[in-house]
Design brief:
The chain is α/β, with parallel strands linked by helices. The protein has 13 helices and eight strands. The chain has three domains: 2-68 and 168-241, 3-Layer(aba) Sandwich (Rossmann fold), CATH 3.40.50; 84-162; 258-329, no CATH class. Helix content is 49%, strand content 11%.
Length: 331
């Protein structure tokens, strides 16, 4: 079993590593691609088709779709129905009503008539269940919350319902069951920038890793929660693709360039950006008004064109395109 984790402040570095990993697979090998969004997984598969003549057997899903697919057979056999957010809030409201009738709400008794109380309790219970915190663990921390969690879970069990934490727990149990022969299990797996923010997320990934012959996980550099959970909960060794030693020879100059430094430090308040010589990768200018600003944009476009960059490889990102479009097109 191979388990690799890579991170980068530049999204294209993680995508490139994922593409290289997929290119090394056999054309007919079944592979599981889990993206942060379905569009991201599909786009990676489409970009790979430009380099490989043919390949098939790619299963492309989001993390939520994967968990639902793995849990669905078990939930169907148990005649259990997953609830959406409104259903979860209704069950939480029922638990609050039952405890209110017997005086079991404690300090929350005066809040039941307030707006949003049921929704807030439903959110808290969901977070607790996602972190796999049992009711007994609340006895000495928030004792008044313990009966709410117990009643909520009892209501789910009695009426044949489950919530998203329950779906994740069911999916994890199915993966860890040696008798489960689901078609999505036992495949080389790529997790493309999937946030693993809760203990339930990590538990499912741990179970998938145990069944998968090889797994590659890419993580954005600013996803501090996932980067913290992977080493602590899974014992993963994270490779930083922004490090010059981990980058291919052709990318080392770009890794040390101003654009890469901007990507790494623009949202980083903990580490100061190093003082290095400026280059032309990032240019900051100011102009009085949209028309003058468009002049500078067009000058930059012409400079890039003289350097051999095609117009269809350039992009101009604007805050309000309708105010700039006519001025830019007039040039």
């Amino acid at each position: 079993m191979g388990f690799s984790v890579v991170t980068s402040a530049a999204g294209h570095h993680c995508v490139a590593r994922g593409r290289d990993w997929l290119k090394a697979r056999a054309p007919t090998e079944k592979i599981l691609i889990i993206g942060a969004t379905l569009g991201a997984a599909n786009e990676l598969a489409r970009s790979l088709a430009q380099d490989k003549r043919a390949s098939f057997g790619y299963h492309r899903l989001t993390f939520g779709q994967l968990a639902s697919a793995l849990a669905r057979p078990v939930l169907a056999a148990q005649r259990t129905v997953p609830l959406a957010a409104l259903g979860i809030q209704a069950v939480a409201n029922r638990a609050i009503h039952k405890l209110s009738e017997i005086g079991g709400l404690g300090r929350y008794a005066k809040l039941t008539s307030g707006p949003g109380f049921a929704r807030a309790i439903a959110n808290v219970i969901t977070e607790l269940r996602l972190e796999q915190i049992e009711p007994d663990a609340l006895a000495h921390v928030v004792p008044d919350l313990r009966p709410l969690l117990q009643t909520y879970e009892r209501e789910l069990a009695e009426h044949g319902f489950t919530d998203w934490p329950g779906v994740l727990r069911t999916a994890t149990a199915a993966v860890t069951n040696p008798g489960c022969r689901h078609q999505l299990l036992g495949l080389p797996t790529l997790l493309l920038d999937v946030p693993l923010t809760t203990a339930s997320d990590v538990a499912l990934v741990r179970a998938l890793c145990a069944r998968s012959p090889e797994m590659l996980v890419t993580v954005p550099a600013m996803d501090s929660v996932t980067l913290t959970r992977l080493p602590s909960d899974l014992g993963a060794v994270i490779v930083n693709l922004d490090s010059p030693d981990a980058s291919p020879q052709g990318l080392k100059q770009k890794v040390n360039g101003s654009l890469s430094r901007l990507q790494r430090h623009i949202f980083n308040d903990a580490v100061a950006a190093p003082q290095v010589r400026r280059d032309e990768q990032v240019i900051v200018f100011s102009a009085p008004g949209e028309s003058r600003e468009c002049v500078e944009i067009v000058r930059r476009v012409l400079i890039l064109a003289r350097e051999g960059i095609a117009f269809d490889q350039m992009a101009v990102l604007l805050r309000s395109p309708h105010e700039y479009r006519s001025a830019i097109l007039s040039f």
